[in-house]
């Protein structure tokens, strides 16, 4: 991996992972610059300062678990072709001895030229909840083509993400408010995972799978 935190120390756990389980990311597709916060950087083994300033998407995707990486690459191609909302659950390897399960939630915007120009969203570290329950064998990627068809849970999650990201612009005061908003995002992320699994078990219609 080109950029890594703690690669020389397999027992290293970035403070960001113990302090927060919610990371924020933003990707300018034109120019390929992805900016992420400290938590997101830790989940992907990225140097914080460089990640906050912006790195190519490949710097982060290099940390995706080898078994999940091919599917991730196919879904990136798909989302760049259509834009819209998505939810993904997959593994990252921020260090050789550490595997994290994350839930990613985001939105990709289409410009006037019909091309995807910008993406933004969050990643939630759900490793502990995975350890408490069963762990699937690989990644899950779902996409919702129409916002009108989204469930109240997904709409609530999108609003919470938007609020969390707006608070980033408020400096120290925003930091205090993000500490209040963070548990809600984590709870919503866990509920998304549980509801998706419950619907699959019941055979209920799911958001369109990404192939």
Automatic annotation (TrEMBL):
Its EC number is 2.7.13.3. Transmembrane segments: none annotated. GO terms for molecular function: protein histidine kinase activity. This is histidine kinase. It comes from the Bacteria. Keywords: Kinase, Phosphoprotein, Transferase. Pfam families: PAS_3 (PF08447). Signal peptide: none annotated. SUPFAM superfamilies: PYP-like sensor domain (PAS domain). It is an enzyme of class 2 (transferase). It comes from Roseomonas indoligenes.
């Amino acid at each position: 991996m080109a950029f890594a935190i703690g690669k020389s120390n397999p027992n290293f756990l970035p403070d960001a992972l113990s302090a927060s389980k919610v990371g924020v990311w933003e990707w300018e597709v034109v120019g390929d610059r992805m900016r992420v916060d400290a938590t997101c950087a830790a989940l992907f083994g990225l140097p914080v300062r460089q990640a906050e300033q912006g790195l190519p998407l490949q710097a982060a995707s290099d940390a995706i678990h080898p078994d999940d990486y091919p599917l991730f690459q196919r879904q990136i191609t798909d989302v760049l072709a259509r834009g819209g909302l998505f939810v993904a659950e997959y593994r990252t390897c921020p260090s050789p001895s550490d595997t994290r399960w994350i839930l990613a939630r985001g939105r990709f915007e289409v410009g006037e030229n019909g091309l995807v120009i910008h993406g933004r969203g969050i990643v939630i570290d759900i490793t502990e909840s995975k350890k408490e329950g069963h762990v699937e064998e690989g990644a899950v990627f779902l996409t919702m083509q129409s916002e009108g068809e989204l469930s109240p849970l997904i709409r609530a999650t999108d609003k919470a993400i938007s609020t969390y990201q707006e608070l980033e612009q408020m400096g120290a005061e925003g930091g205090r408010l993000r500490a209040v908003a963070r548990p809600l995002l984590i709870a919503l992320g866990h509920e998304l995972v549980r509801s998706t699994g419950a619907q699959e078990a019941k055979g209920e219609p799911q958001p369109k799978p990404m192939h």
